[in-house]
Amino acid sequence: MSFVVKYLEDQGYVFLKLSGAITKDELEASREDVSQALVDNDYKKLLIDMSEAEPRESLTQDFQFTSELYRHFPAGTRLAIIIPPEETKRMEFVKDVASNRGVRTGLFHDEGSALDWLVGG
Question: Which domains does the chain possess?
Answer without folding.
Answer: 2-120 (3.30.750.24)
